[in-house]
Structures are given as C-alpha cells and as structure tokens.
Amino acid sequence: MMRTIRVAVAQMTCLDGQVDANLNHASKLTLEATKKGAELVLFPEFMSQGYRLTVDIWKSAEPFKGPTTTWLCDTAKELNVYIGSTFLEASKGHFFNTFAMSSPSGRIVGIVRKRYPSMWEAYFFKGSPGEHTFKTDFGRVGVGICFDSHTHTVASKLAASNPVLILMPHSYCTPTVPTKLMPQEDIDRLNNLPRQVAQLYNSIFGVPVLLCNKSGSWDSPVPNKLLGTPRNYIFPGRSTIIDADGSLIIELGHTESVGVGQVTLKSELSTKKPIPKHSRYIYTGSIGREIIRLIEWQGKLSYTFNRVRKQRALSAEQI
C-alpha cells in the first residue's frame, strides 16, 4: 500500500541562545508551510538554542517538558501538522541533543537523542545510545541527527527498523574563504556532502528523505584549536526533499526559506541494499578525517570532568 504526504523543510536562521525568539520565528515558518499544504514540518538541529559552541549554550538548555516541546505540541495542534526539531535537553545532570516530534493531536510521538556528538560538540553534550525510529499514524519514521546520519552504526539501526520516511535535521556549517589547507574544491565538496548523504540513504532504503539545514552565518569560538579556529563560516542551507523514487523534489539555496513538496510513503521498503562501511562512515573520505576522533575524545574527557556542567544541567532541569 502507498500514500502521499506533503512535507516541508523549514530552513531557518537561528539566533544563539534566544529560545523564545527562535520559537516565535519558527511559528511564522510553520504557518507558511501549512498554508502551502504541509502535513509535516522539519526544522534544523538546535532550532531553539542556536549553535554557539561554548559553555554559553548551557544557559539556554531546558528540561524535556520545557519551552521547545511545549511549543511543538501547541503549534502542531493549532495548525494540525506534525512538527519536529532538536533542542538542548538537560536531564539528570547531563545535556543531550534531543529530537522531538509532535503529532497534530498535540502530543509528542517521537523522541531520538543524538548518538555521536561531532568534533567540538563533544565538549558540551553527551551522546546517547537508543532507538532512531518511532511510530506515527502514517508509519515508522527514522531520524539521523546531523553527523549521526553519516555513520554506519546509525544507518544500520535505521535499516533494521524499516522506516517509511527518514528525517535529517542538521546544523552543518562550512567555510566560505579558500585557504591553502582548504581550497575551493574542498569547500564545494563539503557544501554538497549533506545532499549526497541524503541521496545515499534514498538509494539504500528507497524511501523519502528530508534534510533540513540552517541558513545564515556561523561565528563561534571553539574549545579545541587542533584544526584551527573556524572563521568566515556559514550554514550553507541546501535543505533537500527527495522522493522514494529518487526524484529531487526540493533543494533550497543558502538563504532562509521554506520548501514544501509531496512524497510517496510505502508500507514496505522497496530497496534493501547493504550499508556501505568506510571506517565509521557510510562514504569514502581522506584518512585525515580520523583526526576528528581525537577532538571528540578530548571533548568527552572535558565534558565528563567539567565541574560546572553537572551544576548547570541540574539547574536547567528546574526551568
């Protein structure tokens, strides 16, 4: 059996640390999407908190039943739509990157935590093993939060759960100015990578894939200078909707915008190919990318032994 559904990617420019302002702005984008017939709206990773990779991000953390999930439920019910996004969750003295989706009934039907904090993220929140799919009225939905979707482990877990739709919220940023270490061809390759990952999932699973990235500039200090200090970076957008048959329904540009398109959901996967494995990734790359593991290892140690972290998380849980 098959059915169609109109879906939207809300490619948003988010303000660091300004949860209320981001949620208010997201309301306008959701309304725009529903006016175009969207039945499901996907927002980028950390839509509520922004993406400042310093301890300042902890100031905007929230408990699970906090501003973001309240907004998700209220807005989904008001506009009769599914809405999903991730937020910085404080729980039991820790911080997590948590995806939540509300149904049109106004209740949370899906929860997925990011499994692999990437690079500098490991300094500020904890990875969490768990499920990457959940049930909805239209079938099982799979979620790969940014870097998670690039990994063999998460792709394999998604394959085992037979989702009818895959969502990829991203906070994916890239340089804009070429250097000796980062020539323009590498910048172009990085800009194209998320879409290529979405297309790879589509070819493996044969289901629609929604990739939603942020737009706007990214200017944040980072806690580890092993790869230098990022300057002149942007969130390049390029949010994408791919239908089950591989058709590219939507590919947005660099600026904030909402893309809406119709996709076909199938009750069974039409394609079940082996998951490619290249080290921890599902695509090939230079051996140099393995240095990211060192940054993540150092980040995990810093996070674990940070005396302020537990206090800040416990405090945020009381909001």
Number of separate structural domains: 1
Tell me the total number of β-strands.
15
Nearest-angstrom radius of gyration? Answer: 18 Å
β-strand amount: 25-35%
Architecture, according to CATH? Answer: 4-Layer Sandwich
Contiguous runs where pLDDT drops below 50 for at least 5 residues: none
User: What is the arithmetic mean of pLDDT?
Assistant: 95
Distance between the termini: 45 Å
The top-level CATH class is Alpha Beta
Q: Could you say what the CATH topology is called?
A: Nitrilase/N-carbamoyl-D-aminoacid amidohydrolase
What class would the helix/strand composition place it in? alpha/beta
Overall 3D geometry? globular
- H/E element string? EHEHEEEEEHEEHEEEEEEHH
How does the major sheet shape up?
A: 6 strands, mixed
Please give a structural write-up.
By secondary structure, the chain is an alpha/beta fold. It has a single domain (2-316), classed as Nitrilase/N-carbamoyl-D-aminoacid amidohydrolase (4-Layer Sandwich). It has six helices and 15 strands. It has helices at residues 19-35, 67-79, 152-161, 184-205, 291-305, 307-316; strands spanning 2-11, 40-42, 82-91, 94-102, 108-113, 133-136, 139-143, 165-169, 174-175, 209-212, 215-218, 233-236, 240-242, 248-251, 257-266. A six-stranded mixed β-sheet has the order 5-4-3-2-1-15. Strands 6-7-8-10-13-14 form a six-stranded mixed β-sheet, with helices on one face. A hairpin with a 2-residue loop joins strand 6 (133-136) and strand 7 (139-143). It is globular. The chain starts with a strand and ends with a helix. The mean pLDDT is 95.
